[in-house]
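Sequence in, structure out. Go.
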Amino acid sequence: MFNKMKKGDLVVGSIVLLLIIISFAGVKIYNSLGSGNGKIAVIRQNNIIIKTIDLDKLKESQEIKIDGDFHNTILLENGRIRFEDADCPDLVCVKTGWLDKNGQMAVCLPNKVSVKIEGSDEGLDGVAF
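Output:
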């Protein structure tokens, strides 16, 4: 197969391969720059912001307890957040697990509590891009 390739075929193939490599490198660099935009966790109850935390600046774990119709315990660590415990009937908020990317969200509907990671790059994802 390679014996029948002309010089022009080899040049075009090399250029296409080079463009593919450059594209992958560009996406990797873009993603690494985008991750520095900060992960700001916003905790709301009854659609009112009760706490805002920069997750990238946390040095040690923190626990936040929220009361209402039910009780929630939210655990924060460097770069991530989750509902650790709740006494609501379905525990969907706890089962959601760790949130560690901009745009991710967990909600405890019975207690009207939401946790969302906001940042300036949350509008971009693989589908929107």
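Check: The chain has two domains: 2-35, 38-118. The two ends are 37 Å apart (CA to CA).
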